[in-house]
Design brief:
This protein is mainly β. It is built from no helices and eleven strands. The strands form two sheets. Strands 2, 4, 5, 6, 9, 10 and 11 form a seven-stranded mixed sheet that branches. The radius of gyration is 13 Å and the shape is globular.
């Protein structure tokens, strides 16, 4: 059974940092695509970051480039989202996902597996 479990959300003031973690159990990580999405109330789901496990290529949405990074620890089966210089507009529920399709990019909106979400709240 595949499970994606996020942790690390919370509340922070603008300019602060948070790191989200997502542990992927029951999933064969070789040659797989892992991603982070976010959704704010009343807004569409937005792709934030992706990692293709074969080769480690990553991609970031334009809205977070220069502030967020994503990384993968294969041995721990954990993907991270480091969020720096947070802004109030980053406030959202953040979801980890696996097996994105149609491709491993931040424009993909669907995935086979989803985590339960981690709330990130940034106050001004």
């Amino acid at each position: 059974q595949v499970q994606l479990v996020e942790s690390g959300g919370g509340s922070v003031q603008a300019g602060g940092s948070l790191r989200l973690s997502c542990v992927a159990s029951g999933l064969f990580l070789s040659n797989n695509c892992l991603g982070w999405f976010r959704q704010a109330p009343g807004k569409e789901r937005e792709g934030v970051a992706t990692t293709f496990t074969f080769g480690g290529n990553t991609a970031l949405a334009d809205s977070v480039k220069g502030r967020f990074t994503t990384s993968l620890d294969i041995a721990k089966k954990t993907v991270y989202l480091q969020m720096n210089s947070l802004k109030p507009e980053d406030t959202a529920m953040y979801y980890c996902a696996a097996q994105l399709f149609p491709d491993c990019t931040t424009t993909s909106r669907t995935a086979t597996y989803w985590g339960q979400g981690a709330q990130v709240t940034v106050s001004s």
